[in-house]
C-alpha cells in the first residue's frame, strides 16, 4: 500500500508503507490535511521536525515537502527504518532526514536536540501516553513556540498540559483524535 503526500513540493507523490499488521495504521490523507491546516505553514516552514513512532515517516516527509528544514525519524523497527530511508532517497531528500533506530521514549530521554514541530503517532494500543507526553513536556526537546501533534485513539483522553506544553486544539476524525499542543514563547 502506498501513501500519498498531500501538500508541498512533493504533493501527489507516493511513499512506500509496510504490509498491514498489528499497529500499522497510516494517517489518512484527510487527517494529514487537517493536521497541517490546523498548525499552519509557519509551524512547518524552516523548522526542525521530530517524527516519533515514525513507521513510514509519512508525517515527517509531509513536513519536509511543506518546507521543514529537516526531520528526525524515530522508529524501533529495523525494517521500517530502512523503509523511511528508501522513502527519503526516492524523493531525493535523504540529506535532510535523519533516521534513528530507537524506542521513542528512550530517544526523548537521551536526546540533546530541540525541535520546532513534533509528531507522535504511535500504535493505537500504546498505553504510555502520560509517560511519553510528560517526558516531552519536561525536557527542552520542543523549542519555545514549538508545536506537538499527537494522534491517538478517539477514546483516549490526553491531559490539557504536560510540563511546558499546553493543548490549544483537539479534533476528532472517525476513530482518531488529534491533540495539538504548543510551548508558549517568552
Task: Give a short overview.
The chain is of the alpha/beta class and 186 residues long. It contains five helices and ten strands.
**Measured distance between first and last alpha carbons:** 44 Å
Rg over alpha carbons: 15 Å
Order of helices and strands: EEHEHEHEHEHEEEE
Mean pLDDT score, rounded?
92
In CATH terms, what is the architecture?
A: 3-Layer(aba) Sandwich
Q: How many E-type strands?
A: 10
Question: Can you tell me the CATH superfamily?
Answer: Vaccinia Virus protein VP39
- What fraction strand? 25-35%
According to CATH, the fold-level topology is: Rossmann fold
Q: Helix count?
A: 5
The CATH class designation is: Alpha Beta
Whole-number total of structural domains: 1
Strand order of the largest sheet: 5-4-3-6-7-10-9-8
Largest sheet: 8 strands, mixed
Helix/strand class: alpha/beta
Shape: globular
Helix content: 25-40%
Low-confidence stretches: none
Describe this entry's structure for a reader.
- The structure is a single chain.
- Helices cover 26% and strands 32% of the residues.
- It has an eight-stranded mixed beta sheet with strand order 5-4-3-6-7-10-9-8. Strands 1-2 form a two-stranded antiparallel sheet.
- The mean pLDDT is 92.
- The protein is α/β, with parallel strands linked by helices.
- The longest helix is centred in the middle third of the chain and has 14 residues, at 78-91.
- It has a single domain (2-183), classed as Rossmann fold.
- Helix 4 runs parallel beside helix 5.
- It has helices spanning 29-39, 58-65, 78-91, 104-110, 129-137; strands spanning 2-4, 14-16, 48-52, 70-75, 97-101, 115-120, 142-153, 161-162, 165-173, 176-183.
- It is built from five helices and ten strands, in the order ββαβαβαβαβαββββ.
- Helix 5 links the parallel strand 6 and strand 7.
- The radius of gyration is 15 Å and the shape is globular.
Amino acid at each position: 500500500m502506498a501513501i500519498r503526500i498531500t501538500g508541498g513540493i512533493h504533493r501527489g507523490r507516493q511513499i512506500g508503507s509496510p504490509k498491514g499488521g498489528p499497529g500499522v495504521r497510516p494517517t489518512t490523507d484527510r487527517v494529514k490535511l487537517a493536521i497541517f491546516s490546523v498548525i499552519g505553514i509557519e509551524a512547518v516552514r524552516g523548522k526542525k521536525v521530530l517524527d516519533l513512532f515514525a513507521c513510514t515517516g509519512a508525517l515527517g516527509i509531509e513536513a519536509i515537502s511543506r518546507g521543514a528544514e529537516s526531520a528526525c525519524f524515530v522508529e524501533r523497527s529495523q525494517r521500517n527504518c530502512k523503509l523511511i530511508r528508501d522513502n527519503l532517497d526516492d524523493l531525493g531528500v535523504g540529506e535532510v532526514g535523519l533516521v534513528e533506530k530507537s524506542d521513542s521514549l528512550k530517544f526523548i530521554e537521551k536526546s540533546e536536540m530541540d525541535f520546532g514541530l513534533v509528531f507522535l503517532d504511535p500504535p493505537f494500543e500504546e498505553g504510555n501516553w502520560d509517560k511519553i507526553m510528560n517526558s516531552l513536556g519536561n525536557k527542552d526537546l520542543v523549542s519555545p513556540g514549538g508545536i506537538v501533534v499527537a494522534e491517538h485513539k478517539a477514546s483516549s483522553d490526553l491531559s490539557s498540559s504536560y510540563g511546558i506544553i499546553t493543548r490549544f486544539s483537539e479534533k476528532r476524525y472517525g476513530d482518531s483524535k488529534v491533540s495539538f499542543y504548543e510551548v508558549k514563547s517568552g
